[in-house]
Amino acid sequence: MITVENDQSPIRASRLGFSSFPTFPSLSDKVIPSQFPAMAEASRILHSTLFPTLSLQLSKPCYNSHVYPSLSLKKAPRPVQCSVSTSETKSTSSNATQEVPWGCDIDSLENAEALQKWLSNSGLPPQKMAIDKVAVGERGLVALKNIRKGEKLLFVPPSLFITADSEWSSPEAGLVLKQYSVPDWPLLATYLISEASAQKSSRWCNYISALPRQPYSLLYWTRAELDRYLEASQIRQRAIERVTDVIGTYNDLRLRIFSKYPDIFPEEVFNMETFRWSFGILFSRLVRLPSMDGKVALVPWADMLNHSCEAETFLDYDKSSQGVVFTTDRAYQPGEQVFISYGKKSNGELLLSYGFVPKEGANPSDSVELPLSLKKSDKCYKEKLEALRKHGLSTSQCYPIQITGWPLELMAYAYLAVSPPSMSKQFDEIAAAASNKSTIKKDLRYPDIEEKALQFILDSCESSISKYSKFLQASGSMDLDVTTPKQLNRRVFLKQLAVDLCTSEQRILFRAQYILRRRLRDMRSGELRALRIFDGLRNIFK
């Protein structure tokens, strides 16, 4: 599995800047590592390329904003867009998923030898790694011989990339999608299904046979499972949005294109289950190559590398060797699994796209989204709401908190939430500072209401902690009524992922709670000391 970088942008990979408590850094201080592997989080790309007129307000429970550029189709009278309703989404996502008739078990090595042989015959140079079963990631690439730190590996040539320009085994299908100007993501999803259904007549037969039949992805969780296991985490809402997007993508393609060409796109091949599979593959394996002008591609062999939170090396195209490479950031002994980084992602983001959660405390990039909301009882509710909307925000926002700090925008939102009517002239300035779209000064200070702002954040933090505690306490007695072994194994697996995620997110909230309580205690004890000094001076003058 490899990466498609996170929700920040469809074009570049970036991460939020953080500093240690009690300094609050700005969301606008972004780092753009040139070697990031590119999935700029798949749902972000999906929105920006496919849903130009989509009316979902994804910024309402989530902090990240989404852009919907215009999309014109050459043959279709209107653009492909999401036309699925909430009721349709719930109905579809609640059904048990079925496996596609191609690929292999996620931990299987049955097709590994055939894949390696095909790659070698197709231009992949001799490798120092081989596919094997591993402790982290089911299967991965393992060193065959000593590998030095700083050594370049892989060298996968462009002829082995799957891109939007790849040749179709069914030329008619490719021609139709090109005529409709279908964007890269849905085009690649359709391409994968088309090539998989072509079986041995496709040049990618050996590659597709080695892909997991059911990728680890939240796309395969039912709506009931998302509601049950992720009720405490904000990742639940993002997972629901992603499922909705994929269902909407398929429905639009079916209504706009597939139904008009049933001989080319038969429903027994191009259906919701096969699209769930193909998007699961794209979310977990598609990479963006900075040195190829940001081109997105599936790169066979390279996508067998697993993620490590300690790794700092990424995939990219090397112009001198004309292939996709990565440079090792440590030495490896024969038999050791070789790792890359999928990007600076939180545990929730890793679960969302790749279906795994690192061990507690192992991910230095881990974060949790803290929901904040204006109170409707606020005397200035309408004025504050107007200021927020002016800067692309709503009454409910989520801000990321790391174990080491939180963004300046969060503090600005808290200032706005507790500001009295006498500060109405400053509402616009504070709302602008709460948005990552604005470039104004973020480090605002309002000493008169700072204590109230910190208490507001603490209250929100403790409210979230209680939700996590409730889930974790109840998790032990969940699913005791399940008797089918297969269903029980699945639920135990999903529940463990959810427990691991909630434990890691609650850990960050506990740290924030401790810092906030200490800060408030120090402020209040300082005020008490000041009052005592003042009373003492007053007594002296008396």
Automatic annotation (TrEMBL):
Cellular component aspect of the GO annotation: chloroplast
- Protein's UniProt name: SET domain-containing protein
Positions the record marks as coiled coil are none
The answer to keyword S-adenosyl-L-methionine applying to this record is yes
Protein keywords: Methyltransferase, S-adenosyl-L-methionine, Transferase
What the entry lists under SMART domains is as follows: SET
PROSITE patterns from the xrefs?
SET
GO BP annotations, alphabetical order: methylation
In this chain, S-adenosyl-L-methionine is annotated as bound at 285, 306-307
Q: Which InterPro entries match?
A: Rubisco_LSMT_MeTrfase_plant, Rubisco_LSMT_subst-bd, Rubisco_LSMT_subst-bd_sf, SET_dom, SET_dom_sf, SET_RBCMT, SETD3_SETD6_MTase
Q: Which domain of life is it from?
A: Eukaryota
Species source reads Gossypium davidsonii (Davidson's cotton)
Q: Which residues form the SET domain?
A: 125-343
Residues annotated for substrate binding in this entry: 285, 303, 317, 342, 354
Determine if Nucleus is one of this entry's keywords: no
Q: Name one GO molecular function term.
A: protein-lysine N-methyltransferase activity
